[in-house]
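Q: My hope is that you can spare some time for a protein that puzzles me. Underneath my words sits a plain record pairing an amino acid chain with its backbone structure tokens. Those tokens are not coordinates but codes from a learned vocabulary of shapes. Thank you; the sequence and its tokens follow:
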Amino acid sequence: MPYFLAVYTMQPEDLARFRALPKAEQQAIDDVGLKQWKEWETRNAAVLPNLGGMVGRTTRITRDGIAAASNPICGYVIVEAATAEAAASLFADHPHLTVFPGDGVDIMPFLAGPGPLAPETGAVAVRRLSCKRQMRRLRPPKSGAAAVPCHPPRSRSMRLLLAASATLALLALPAFAADDTLVLYTSQPNTDAQTTADAFTAATGIKVDWVRDGTPLIIAKLQSEIAAGNPQPDVLLISDVVTMEGLKQQGLLAAYPEADISAYDPALMDKDHTYFSTKLITTGIVYNTKAPFVPTSWADLTRPEAKGLVTMPSPLTSGAAMIHAVTLTGALPGGWDYYSALARNGATAAGGNGDIEKAVAGGDKLYGMIVDYLPVRDGLKGSPVKFVFPTEGVSAVTEPAAILKTARHMDAAKKFIDFVLSTAGQETWAKLGYIPARADVALPPGYPTRDSIKVLPYDAAAALANNDANKEKFGEIFGQ
């Protein structure tokens, strides 16, 4: 059968709207989309000779030289199908269209040979499948020539496929960074990533070339680069320690025992010094100022007065919510019995942290489990919400940083770790509205004193090992 190049496209304005969402909401979409993406690849494995990959910033060379450019292309995959229509139909339920803000997938056949099409094969069909329409674009054949599908001989087609795949794999990877440039892959929001890069450059003189996406897609990109033998990042700064623990167990992280962590709680740091917590994004209780009582304890959410008024992100779609669930069930008496009590009291679990904030602020629900910075920031702006750090303690996502063993700029990578752990680096997080992980740096406005916040312990290795079982247990309790 013929082979087709399928190119994923996304319009800049759609991507901008996605990246403007709260970080936790983006993460929830990433978690769902990446899972469905893998399931799609598994279902169609027999007709996917090359899984391709996602691509980053565009650099274009023309007769006038080399310059940055832009286009809607965000990735590709190779498909084997009888026709372009058959290839396009494979993407009808693809999460690029159904979960992520992708606007289409362009399907193009590999040609019989290099150069222009011969008259007898003069039609090049491109199928674009979008959520609303399917469009066909044709390159008209020479006058009098029939527009027929291009189905080259298999052997030659395979050679072209391999050549095209190799070329695209190289194009999908960013160019090597200059000797004085650090390459950072991060899940921070765009503004935070740029602020981090600017602060590091100001402190060290080292430039930063950063790539931002949700943690699952950042890791997928990294893994594809590793498979191609060309990993790009020097350092990672991503959302959670569970992901870092997985990378550590794969042997991908470099130990940095010289890193100064003396001002930090040892429980926040990897004992082998391969990843380092940079901030504390805790999950506590948000309540509407019109709620019937002010909660102070996790147990308050199971009170009769809160029946049907509590909501939370689902751990099945939110990484922070899963970390929170694992933390609470490990710290509270009865473990998962607490979540069973919430379910019996009519609590709902759906969406991401942004959805919880909207529901509570809007009065649809009066209580919720949520990451701290959303209600703290919104409360300072006049929203009718307040945030509580329960007396039993809170869970925390710590946005760890790590150095890759394959880092091409090892000295710069170590300086980056030194910076994010330093007082100046930690003050950068406070200015962005986060709780710095370093104990001697003040918290931002809207937060209580540090000594009033109890962070509960969390075992990343155990959470990684039990991830599937924990998801199954939560789904059983809430019928998800």
The radius of gyration is 25 Å. The chain has three domains: 3-171, 181-278+398-447, 280-396+469-478.
